[in-house]
Write a structure and sequence with these properties.
heterodimer, A: 164 residues, mainly alpha, 75% helix, 0% strand, B: 192 residues, alpha/beta, five-stranded parallel β-sheet, 8 helices, elongated
Chain lengths: 164, 192
């Protein structure tokens, strides 16, 4: 249980889903009584999921950046320490290199995620509205929702995949 | 159901986007990892499948959630010559705890009538349709919108010379021309 709660799957996948579900509920129960009917538009939370996944991805990147700083400082200390700590230098250099590469990949990943959000928002804007106030079931709700979950998957398994 | 090139193209577009939305994220992740097995494919396909089903059945899910909330919402469509009867139907329904949308209560000067009506229909569970002497284009539009949203339509006859549109010919109507009390009860029962 502890390992599940500490894992990125919980932090980056389940926490956003719980947050979005709570958001739907709170919006529904606090809405003006005249418009309190629960509609399919309330389920259209694809972009909320995408945003949450994007933030989760940034958190993973931030963890990597922190790891890079720690490894760099340790490397500096090892070099300054002289003879006794010198054997650690190659290992620390490899760690610093890995973290640097991960961060670079992470920046590339941010670009891809932003591109995906832009494409999805364009699809919703152009084809996602059935009428002025009603979303199309397919392009307005299903495509962004599936995209949002795909984003969560990519973000939550990003560490496992060395995406970040 | 009519079959045309348009519906065929729409079908192809839907199937393609379905496949794309399912396959692209998996391929992207799989490409990066060089092995789909390590990803736990069941988790990926399972969650994507759930998201897809929730989206496709969002109307039905919303309808089921609404049933739990209890309060019924009714839109009253009526010709302005029968505004008194419409108001009395509204009062009767409100007295029984139903939320009623009546244009004179909710549309203010400067509001877009079409948007307001559409939004009200989006927020309604049923439509009480007071049949006019002659169907106007506005009455037709409201009827078509209500039908397109799958709302229950309760036709109400208040004049002997009311015109029943073809769409409602097979729907049992409430007759308020003679026994008003009984008719009101029928409306309340039909609204549920």
């Amino acid at each position: 249980m502890e390992s599940f709660l500490a894992g990125s799957l919980f932090r980056i996948f389940f926490v956003p889903i719980i947050s979005v579900a709570l958001g739907i509920y709170i919006k529904y129960v606090t809405r003006n009584d005249q418009f309190a009917k629960f509609s399919k538009e309330d389920i259209a939370v694809g972009f909320d999921l995408m945003r949450a996944a994007f933030l989760g991805y940034l958190i993973l990147l931030s963890d990597k950046a922190r790891g890079l700083i720690g490894a760099s400082m340790a490397l500096n200390d090892a070099i300054k320490g002289g003879g006794a700590t010198l054997p650690q230098v190659p290992i620390l250099q490899t760690t610093v290199n890995n973290h640097s590469h991960d961060l670079l990949r992470g920046v590339f990943g941010i670009g891809l995620l932003m591109l995906g959000m832009w494409v999805t928002s364009t699809i919703v804007r152009k084809k996602g509205w059935r009428t002025e106030t009603e979303l199309d079931l397919w392009y307005g709700i299903t495509v962004p929702l599936t995209g949002g979950v795909a984003y969560l998957i990519i973000s939550s398994v990003g560490r496992k995949l060395s995406l970040v | 159901m009519k079959f045309s090139l348009g519906t065929f193209q729409e079908g192809v577009a839907k199937v393609s986007s379905l496949l794309l939305s399912l396959i692209v994220p998996v391929l992207l992740v799989g490409f990066v990892e060089h092995s789909l097995l390590r990803l736990d494919a069941l988790f990926v396909f399972g969650t994507l499948g759930v998201a897809l089903l929730v989206g496709v059945f969002s109307s039905g899910i919303a309808r089921r959630i609404r049933k739990f909330s209890g309060t019924r919402r009714v839109f009253i469509s009526y010709p302005h010559a029968t505004s008194e009867i419409a108001s009395s139907i509204a009062a009767e329904l409100r007295g029984r705890g139903t939320k009623v949308w009546l244009d004179i209560d909710h549309i203010r000067p400067g509001d877009s009538i079409q948007n307001a009506i559409e939004q009200a229909l989006n927020n309604s569970d049923a439509v009480v349709f007071v049949l006019p002497h002659k169907m106007t284009k506005y009455a037709f539009k409201e009827l078509q919108l209500a039908r397109s949203k799958g709302l229950k339509i309760i036709p109400v006859v208040v004049n002997h010379d009311a015109s029943i549109p073809a769409e409602l010919e097979s729907v049992k109507y409430v007759d308020l021309t003679t026994k008003q009390g009984q008719g009101m009860e029928e409306i309340v029962a039909a609204v549920g």
